[in-house]
Amino acid sequence: MSPILIDPTTFISTIILVGVLVVSFVLSQEIKRRKQSEIQRQMAEKALQESESRYRLVVETQSDFILHSLPDTTIVFANPSICQALGFSLTEIIGKKWSDFANPEDLQRDVFKGLSELTPESPTFIAENRDSRVDGQIGWTQWINRGIFNKIGQLVEIQSVGRDITALKQVEMALRQNEERLQLVTENMSDLVCLHQLDGQYLYVTPSCQSLLGYSPTELLGQDPYHWVHPEDQAQFRQASNWLTLTKNAVPVTYRMRKKTGDYIWLETLTKPIFDTEGKIIHLQMTSRDVSAQIKVEQQLRHDAFYDALTGLPNRHMLIERLNQIIKRVKRSPALKIAVLFLDLDHFKVINDSLGHLIGDQLLMAVAHKLNTCIREIDLAVRLGGDEFVIVLEEVSSIGDVVYIAERILRELQSPIQLHDRDIFITTSIGIVWVTSNHHQAEDLIRDADLAMYQAKSQGRGCYAIFNSTMHLQALQRLNLENDLRKALENQEFVLYYQPIVSLKTFLLQGFEALIRWEHPQRGLLTPNQFISVAEETGLIIPLGRWVFQQACQQLATWQQGISTAKNLKLSINLSAQQLQDPQLLNQLIQIIQTTGIQGENLILEITESMLIENVETTRELLAQIQLRGIQVSIDDFGKGYSSLSYLHQLSVNGLKIDRAFIHKIEQADKNYTLVDIIISLSNLLGLYTVAEGIETSQQLEWLQKRQCEFGQGFLFSKPVPSELAEKFLNYCDQRLDSLFKTQ
Ligand code: C2E
Ligand code: CA
Ligand code: CA
């Protein structure tokens, strides 16, 4: 092969060409790269510009506050939101420090303390501070401050984002205030409010448990309240707090709860269920109130309502309740034997009036005590009122048992009661009634026992009587009588009869005793014994007595107008005790005397001894006033009652009327007739006139004449007669009446 020879020029020019080609390639590559990087730069710049404008938009439209500050808190940037909130323009804010806007108090609290603690590792801190807002209000802002550090760890800027938390703070504050208030209320309320588990365990207890029960709340937590509830009240407490039966309208339960001291307190508790969101009961809330004071008052009132304040014995209300229960029991089992005893002290009024109410009260207390000792636990002793007591004897086997107890009570009460160094003797009358199925209400029993007691009284007191149906009949009759009596006055059914009073020496008519009669439309002529006591008990005796007085005086005036001998006639009128107590009596007497035109000297008022004993002072005064008008006063039924001759001295009376019981005994050779002797002598000695009442036989008359008894009255001369017949006697007034009467 032949070597290839290369022309040097060609070679060089080839080399140059290659070189140019390489350089131009490299250059073109470079230009391309540069172009590309220019494009990239332009794109980045555009992106940055876009990002910046977006950021600006975000910052400017942000409702949050944005601040950029230097490390010394000089503000270099603020967004419109904060400018708006604070009411400053941007230029007013830029260059100022945080402290220029912050609340001085917050500065004192050093709310920006976190600033000095910022590090690159822990570059943020949160601060809440107040600032004055454009509207003059105080605003709250929560700042999240982020520190920006340079490469060598120096703080170069602080970027802060603030959120207006004013509304939040206000809610928080309101909550706190509410909480404080709630705490104040729970700490100071006297009621006890507790939250319980369904099984009763305490979950929460208000502090008031300390003052109410003596326990601190922690002592109760986890415990069961039943532990402290009074054993007698546990059943009803359990029932009221049973969550299974609780309703919205739960009623409060009142029960006793033991305090730490061991005493019991009365609580009134209302239990309410607490529901979860699904309506399931999860807890119980109990609100309890101390009602001890209220219960005490109620108990006292109940006690007062059922017990007698003086003796401490149960009273009428309690008796009625007990008797009504007994009546039901007896209706169910008629074989039950229960007795009711009605007790009334004899002459208690005399003791009360003579020894005073204090002694009277003490006597009643002593009697109550004695009664309690005579009965068994199952029996009941009651004070009905005044001097009336009732005893209920349960489960007695026979009437013999009851009589035995009644006699024991009589004996026990008869033994003297010592009061103020004085022995007081008292007797009692007892009425006994068996409870039968015929009794329908308590009042029936009391009424029957009362009737029997009256029977005992009329049998001479200090004894007992057992109720029988006749008593009931009598009582009914009495009731009818009472009703009739009221009508009788209006219907003018009363008349006066006149019984002559005769001189035993001359047999001349001295006067009449006016005696009332009732012309009953159905029952015919009734004598005073049949109705005067009822008139006295009902108070009707006052108008009736006035009528008698008016009628008698009127009659006398009529007689005096027609018959000359009637001028010196003495008319005796009976007065009841109640009339003597009537303050109107004197005026009425005066008025009637004036209107009828008779003389006081023509009148004699007959009163009984017992009437004199009551209210001696006022009676003496009244009698003196009466006598001033010329009216005479005579003591009726003398010797029958108290026979306290001393009163004859004290009270000026004009005459004595010897009770007819003594006159009747004259011929029976009874030694009492010597008493008549004494009365006549005494009467003569005191210058009083004497009338012997109830002379029926000539022997009695003779005997009295021998004893110089001045006047006489009795069937021997005449029974009480109607006014027409009395007038007939008057016409023969100057004749001896013994002959006259024989013509009757
Ligand atoms: P007194 O005041 O003792 O009246 C006498 C009573 O004895 C009268 O009964 C009379 O009928 C009765 N009597 C008179 N003589 C005899 C006799 O020889 N034998 C018997 N066995 N009895 C005789 P009378 O009229 O039934 O009156 C009874 C009582 O009623 C009176 O007793 C008097 O206490 C009272 N009384 C009568 N009228 C009135 C009156 O107007 N007012 C008041 N407050 N009481 C009156
Ligand atoms: Ca009389
Ligand atoms: Ca009499």
Question: What topology does this entry show?
Answer:
Elements: H1 8-61, E1 65-69, E2 75-78, H2 80-86, H3 90-93, H4 104-108, E3 124-132, E4 138-149, E5 155-164, H5 166-188, E6 192-196, E7 202-205, H6 208-213, H7 217-220, H8 234-240, E8 253-258, E9 264-275, E10 281-290, H9 292-306, H10 316-332, E11 339-345, H11 348-355, H12 357-374, E12 380-385, E13 388-393, H13 399-414, E14 417-419, E15 422-424, E16 428-434, H14 442-458, E17 464-466, H15 469-491, E18 494-503, E19 509-520, E20 524-526, H16 532-538, H17 541-562, E21 570-574, H18 577-581, H19 585-596, E22 603-608, H20 609-613, H21 616-628, E23 632-638, H22 645-650, E24 655-658, H23 660-665, H24 672-685, E25 689-693, H25 698-706, E26 711-713, E27 721-722, H26 723-731, H27 737-741
Parallel strand pairs: 16-17, 19-21, 21-22, 22-23, 23-24, 24-25, 25-26
Antiparallel strand pairs: 1-2, 1-5, 3-4, 4-5, 6-7, 6-10, 8-9, 9-10, 11-13, 11-16, 12-13, 14-15, 18-19, 18-26, 18-27, 19-20
The chain binds ligand C2E and calcium ion (2 copies).
Residues 499, 515-516, 527-529, 532, 545, 548, 574-576, 606, 636-637, 660, 694-696, 713-715, 720 line the site of ligand C2E.
What does this structure look like?
This protein has 744 residues and is α+β, with helices and mostly antiparallel strands. It is built from 27 helices and 27 strands. Strand 8 (253-258) and strand 9 (264-275) form a beta hairpin. The chain starts with 7 loop residues before the first helix and ends with a helix. Ligand C2E binds at residues 499, 515-516, 527-529, 532, 545, 548, 574-576, 606, 636-637, 660, 694-696, 713-715, 720. One calcium ion (CA) is lined by residues 513, 574, 606, 636.
